[in-house]
Amino acid sequence: MIGILSRIWRQHWREIVLALLVGAITIAPVFIFRISLGSRFQGMHFLPLDDEEFYLTRMQEIVDGHPLIGSMFLWEYKNRPPLLPPTVEFIYVSISKILGVAPVAALIGGKFVWPAILFLLVFALVKQLTAGVKLSMWAAAAGGLLVTLGFDLVDYQRLVALILGAPGQTGGLPLWARPVNPVAGAVGLFSFLNLLWLIIERRRRRLIPVASLFLALMFGSYYFSWGMALAITAVLGLVYLFYRRFAIIKDIFFVVILGVILAAPYWYLVSWARSFPEFAAATTRFALLYTRQPLANNLVTVATLAFAGGLVIYQKWSARQPGEASGGQLTLNTQPWAYWGGAFLVGSLAAFNQQVITGRAVWPFHFVSYSIPLVYLAAVVMLARLGSLRWSKLASSLLAALGVAAVLFSVAMAARFYQVHYQTFVERQPWAELFTWFNQNTPRDSVVLVAPNAFPLDQFITAYTHNNVYLTEPGNVLAPAERFYHNYLTLLRLKEVPAAAMADYLEAHPAEVTSFLSNSIFALQPTKEFPVREEQLEEVKRQLPADYGNFLQQDFISALRQYRLNYLLSRGALSAPLARELGNPPLVKQVGELFVYQM
């Protein structure tokens, strides 16, 4: 074993060192925060990214005995099929049990492991696409660093603002620091592309089941990864069909079909979910759009044109090189990298616009998570190929500069982001005592009504305790819209909004009303690209004052008891009028300004 590891290190020490660097940069803010607090640290780690509590909640659901995650936040609907089945979450929970640590510890470890693996996969793919080129190592290193650490470099306005020290810049952590997606989807996508290259270009057909397995896992976990994988595969299939390479077409067909078959458990869950009358409405809340509107992507379009121009230059330059096997001709036999690079870009455009054919799209802007890395891949491959023919020193210097820029940019962005959010997580440390109390003193799956003045604790209750919450947005659950409309009426009543002031409240809080009602009842908020359901939303707004007036006429406790309720969490003590409406519940725990009442 030592001999094998020693040989691997000798052959691949460069990429291993860079992968470790990527992982270290991504996980560093968590450890720096922990060390900086010293004895003041009580258990609330520095996890400021979107969806971190969302995925922790999904892991907690598995730990609590709800492995399908039919309803993450609400006690109701636990036994219904999920709209987003767990896959990667099982890996985290399994690791936490094997190591005897909390799921949050496994999640933090993922911040190191996933980006490091992603770097190695991108590195390997670029190496394959630049095989035999003297700048191959430079291109692979630059590609891996750009994808993992330089994702936001394409946002030139943000880059300039950061360099100039413009005020208001909050920075950011690498995209791949998020615990499940899009990083797990990226690992699946680039694993699949590496395997597909080996199957097609190296004729290693025994890898077909492995490629199909990765495709099946993507089917079950993240639409955008398998959507991009199929789009690229389809473009490659058309290329090989044009050249009548039917043996390769057959292999591609087997990869896709076997992937569909291996994903049978996912298709079963989809079929089960479709049997519920709430399915259609729930999928629209899950960001499903019915549209045939095409979408433009300026970056991918420009990159595609630039890549085509690069191919023309490459063909002219290589024709003048006596040692070039291609003789200036870009063919599948001698220059497959050209067709693959083009497939990455054309496939990205196809993924953005598949709704033109199918009439359905799942918030296609998320495809950017993968189209930008694919643009980077095409760029470094083309640069390495051209640099191998002319100006190799300039090309290698440019590739090195891109890699270094990705590292420096990522560190600078993370440092600024850390500074902006540091105090927030210092102030959240007392929350750990509250979560410990809930875990030790409440029955599993108790329901906590988090008052609006205590948001965003609703997200943390489900992530760090074995309890559910009463007020929540849909959260990918097969539930009727009436449940969430009831939530908004409850939220307004907890805010003690008088019936007579309802019209003024709606006018003064347009973002809250639009966000809550759109997400809960009609799905996504209207945008300029997809101005969906605006008329329906306005109709509900007109009806809301009357519905709220009727809700105020009900006994508040009786109205709340329509659904399970065990505790109420408020920031500060309840006002006397609200306490009377709630039956003067007893105070059972106080942590600083946080008050827990038993209902």
Please outline the major beta sheet: 5 strands, mixed
Mean pLDDT: 90
Overall number of strands: 7
Tell me the distance between the termini.
60 Å
Uncertain spans, ≥5 residues at pLDDT below 50? none
Globally, the shape reads globular
Which percent bin holds the helix content? 55-70%
Compute the number of helices.
Answer: 25
Structural class: mainly alpha
Radius of gyration using CA atoms only: 27 Å
How much of the sequence lies in strands comes to under 5%
Strand arrangement within the widest β-sheet reads 4-3-5-7-6
List the topology elements.
Elements: H1 2-37, H2 52-63, H3 88-99, H4 103-129, H5 136-149, H6 156-164, H7 183-201, H8 208-221, H9 223-242, H10 246-262, H11 264-274, H12 279-285, E1 288-290, H13 298-319, H14 336-352, H15 355-358, E2 360-362, H16 368-387, H17 392-427, H18 431-441, E3 447-450, H19 457-464, E4 468-469, H20 481-494, H21 502-508, H22 510-522, H23 534-553, H24 556-560, E5 567-571, H25 576-581, E6 587-591, E7 594-598
Parallel strand pairs: 3-4, 3-5
Antiparallel strand pairs: 1-2, 5-7, 6-7
Helix pairs in contact: 1-4, 1-5, 1-17, 2-3, 2-19, 3-4, 4-5, 4-7, 5-16, 5-17, 7-8, 7-9, 8-9, 8-10, 9-10, 9-14, 13-14, 13-16, 14-16, 16-17, 20-22, 22-23
